[in-house]
Amino acid sequence: MTKTTSISKQVPQQYFEYINYITENSQQLPLKPASYYLKMVKQLSGIINNLPSVVYLLDYRTANYLFLGKNCEQMLGWTDKEVIARGQQWHIKNNIHPDDLAVFSSDVFSKFLTYTRSLPKKELKNIRFSVNFRCKRKDGKYMQALQQYVVIETDKAGNPVLTLGTWTDITAHKTNTKVVFSISSYHKKKGFSIITTDTFPHLKVNISPRENEVIKHLIKGLSSKQIAQKLHISLHTVNAHRRNILKKTNIKNTAELGHYSIEHGLL
Asked: What is the pTM of this model?
């Protein structure tokens, strides 16, 4: 069941403005003590500190980490205590690549906030968010990091105030600098399935609304004839759209279209 409450215009959609808002407005929220949330992490500390990923617990109300795995130093060069002492805003402002931070704090966070607030808490617990970015180590070298996280607590208005997540070094697997943000849903029988994904920055390709419709049907595997019937246009027009799409995107055939569309945020 989806919430019918629309997003308040008073709630900022950009990350740093949101942190200021949530700090001022959610301090009185009756959350459980920090020790409650830390306990669930510390019970697994022996495993957590040996994972190839850094586990974190982030409180938006203070813009700080309640917990960071000790293997933080292996990944970032900074110890968990150093990062916690300096604060989460110091970390992202100083260590995330400026281009990626601009995307994360506006486009990505706005999508995250919009989706989070659209769901009731019972459904939200099954949603996983993922985003990658370039992160600078203490030695000044950049690495590619994948951040995956879930919302643990929200305030009464549905604003996220506590998230639990991981950072993973994916430098060996990431060959470009595009930022990919995805939302997945967990089902007992199906596991995780992607709800939506978006890639930034969007490639500036002048795809018309009609061409975009054709792309969506092509990705589903429909033939030109089937697309013509669905869109109530001629077969000749569909083929003309296909030629224009290939020319604009500079790809060789429609078999490449699905990957290209996701990679460049066309869908």
From this structure: 0.71
